[in-house]
Write a structure and sequence with these properties.
alpha/beta, Elongation Factor Tu (Ef-tu), domain 3, 9 helices
Length: about 325
C-alpha cells in the first residue's frame, strides 16, 4: 500500500513537471517565434547603442518580430538580422525605414519600423531596409550638458546685467520720469503725423505724375507733346540769341561810352561842356521858333490874292492824281 502511494506521487510529480516544461517551452518559443512562420530581414546601423539579440522589433507600435543576430561588418557598419512574423510582413514595404528606440525611458533597446508608401512592394526574405541614425543616450547627455553650460553662462551674464541696472540710479530716474514719457509720446505722435503727411504727399505726387503721364496740364503737354517741346526749345534758342545780341550791344555801348569819356571830340566836348550844351539848347529853341514863324508866313502867302489861284490849282491837281 505504501509502495502504491509512492508510485502515485511519482506519477503526479512527473506529470506536473512535464506540463510545466511544455508550458515553458511554449512561452519561450512564442517569445522567439519558434512556433510561427517567419522571414529574415536585415538592416544596417553605424551604432546600435546596446541592441542585443532577442530584443523586440515593432511596427506601428506593435511587436512583429525579434532580433536574431547582431554582426559587425566593418568599422562603420553593423548588420542586424530580424525575424519578422509572416502574418505581419504584408504591412511592411521595401522602402520602410528602421531606427533604434527603447522600451520606455530606460527600458531595453528595440527596432522600430516606420510605415511607408503603399506604392512600394512587400518585403521578401533577406531584404535589407534602410535605417536612420540613432541618437544615443551618451550623445543626448553630452548635448544636454552643453546646453546646461550655455544656460548657466547666460544666467550669469543676465545676473550681472541686472545687478548693474539695479545699481544705476540714472536709469531708474529715467524710467520714473513722467515728463520724459510725455515727450516721447509727443514725439511719437509727431512722427505719426509726419508719416501721414508723407503718405498724403506721396499720393498727391502719384496723381500729379499720372496727370503728367496722361498729358494733362502744362507739364504733361510739355513732356507728352513733341510739338510743344520743339516750340519751347526754339523759344529758348531765340531767347539765347536775343541775350547774346543784347550782350553784344551792351558791350558796344560800353565801348562807345568809354570812347566818349576818353577821346577828345565834338561829342565828348558836348557831353562835358555845359555852356555849349546851353547854347545848343538855345539854338534848337530858336530854330523851332523860326520854323513856326516860317509856317505862318507860308499861310499868309497862300492867302494872298496874287498867289491864291496857284495854290488852289495845285491842290486840285493833287486830288485828281489821287483819284
Amino acid at each position: 500500500m505504501e509502495k502504491t502511494k509512492n508510485y502515485i506521487k511519482l506519477g503526479l510529480f512527473v506529470t506536473i513537471g512535464t506540463v510545466l516544461l511544455v508550458l515553458a517551452l511554449y512561452l519561450i518559443g512564442s517569445k522567439k517565434n519558434l512556433f510561427s512562420e517567419t522571414i529574415k530581414v536585415n538592416t544596417l546601423f553605424r551604432n546600435i547603442g546596446g541592441l542585443l539579440p532577442g530584443n523586440n522589433v515593432r511596427f506601428a507600435g506593435i511587436n512583429v518580430g525579434t532580433i536574431q543576430n547582431v554582426k559587425i561588418v566593418n568599422d562603420t557598419t553593423v548588420l542586424v538580422t530580424m525575424i519578422i512574423e509572416k502574418d505581419s510582413k504584408k504591412f511592411i514595404r521595401k522602402n520602410s525605414v528602421t531606427d533604434i528606440g527603447s522600451d520606455g525611458l530606460m527600458g531595453n533597446k528595440l527596432i522600430n519600423i516606420s510605415a511607408s508608401s503603399s506604392e512600394s512592394s512587400i518585403i521578401e526574405e533577406n531584404d535589407t531596409l534602410l535605417s536612420l541614425k540613432s541618437v544615443g543616450t551618451d550623445e543626448m547627455m553630452h548635448t544636454l550638458s552643453n546646453t546646461n553650460m550655455n544656460v548657466y553662462d547666460i544666467s550669469t551674464d543676465l545676473k550681472a546685467i541686472m545687478k548693474r541696472i539695479n545699481n544705476n540710479s540714472v536709469l531708474w530716474n529715467l524710467l520714473s520720469d513722467t515728463t520724459l514719457a510725455r515727450k516721447v509720446r509727443t514725439s511719437m505722435e509727431n512722427v505719426e503725423q509726419t508719416t501721414k503727411h508723407a503718405s498724403e504727399l506721396s499720393a498727391n505726387m502719384e496723381g500729379i505724375l499720372k496727370d503728367i503721364h496722361d498729358g494733362k496740364g502744362a507739364a504733361g503737354k510739355l513732356i507728352g507733346d513733341k510739338a510743344v517741346a520743339d516750340d519751347l526749345a526754339n523759344s529758348i534758342a531765340n531767347l539765347k540769341a536775343a541775350s547774346d545780341t543784347a550782350k553784344l550791344a551792351l558791350h558796344h555801348m560800353h565801348e562807345f561810352m568809354r570812347d566818349l569819356n576818353i577821346t577828345p571830340g565834338p561829342l565828348g566836348v558836348l557831353a562835358r561842356d555845359t555852356a555849349m550844351a546851353n547854347d545848343l539848347k538855345s539854338t534848337i529853341h530858336n530854330l523851332d521858333r523860326s520854323s513856326s514863324l516860317l509856317q505862318e508866313d507860308l499861310k499868309a502867302v497862300q492867302s494872298n490874292f496874287l498867289l491864291r489861284k496857284y495854290f488852289k490849282n495845285k491842290i486840285k491837281a493833287e486830288k485828281d492824281s489821287v483819284k
